[in-house]
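Recap for those who missed Tuesday's class. We walked through two folding examples back to back. For each one, the amino acid string is listed first and its predicted structure tokens come directly after. Nothing is annotated here on purpose, so try labeling regions yourself before you check the end of the notes.
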Amino acid sequence: MSTPLVFVDTNVLLYAVDDREPAKRDRSRQWLSTCWRHRCGRVSTQVLDEFYWNAVRRFGSAVSRGDARAEVRRYQQWLPWQLDHATVETAWAVEARFGLAYWDALLVAAAKHQGCGWLLSEDLQHQQLLDGVRVVNPFLAGPETLDTPA
């Protein structure tokens, strides 16, 4: 069985650098480490933009602009999906069909266009199937679930 590609939402990246919530920080780091190890992690330019903006705004002195930029550069290795017209069209269809907020629909669309089987996010309903992409809440399921069928 092959490991599914995992699209990682911004909140998972942010929790990984947030020392204020150690349990979520540690679980996020476990997931990210597993994605690196299996080479299955994916993001979009939207996710990286949101990560940078929120990391420097929320964490101020704890995460410098340089550190946030370094993290964005690191996740460039995951070949971030560039949002284009086709992705927006897919997002609009997902938004209409499932009643999602536009920004969440963009995540689903980017995940779908990259061939991801999973979308790692706490912002959507755990185990919900959206156009072939399964939502996995990283705080309800551990990264060991990558080794079991979705």
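Example two. Treat it independently of the first, because the proteins are unrelated.
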Amino acid sequence: MSDKHLILVVDDDTDLVEMISMKLESEDFRVSKAYDGIEAFDRIKEEKPALVILDVMMPRKDGYALCDELKNSDEYKDIIVVLLTAVSDAISSTNYTHMGGKTTLADDYVPKPIDLDKLVEIVKDNL
């Protein structure tokens, strides 16, 4: 894909951020990184990415809160949001649910562990 859209990858797992970033860069995307919801919102204000890959469970501000903030903002509502969620593995120990993911205004979501090829497909379908 020759059009270099900027994608922001947000997760508190630094190894996962690196893995996703390397995969996207190998597909010719430009990538920015953040490690929690507050840092992510600062990056979004600075860089206006076309798409945000956003982990659900993070410190300081979770993915649902950030997604809703973006989608309810005139300035940022057009940014595509893909949520990453591992919540199916931890339903009994967390108040996050897939239904919660479905009722946010996210454009798509990807379960963890992440299939990188599927994630790239979703990114390309949404851009």
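Answers for example two:
The longest helix spans residues 14-26.
The beta strands are 6-10, 30-34, 51-55, 80-85, 108-111.
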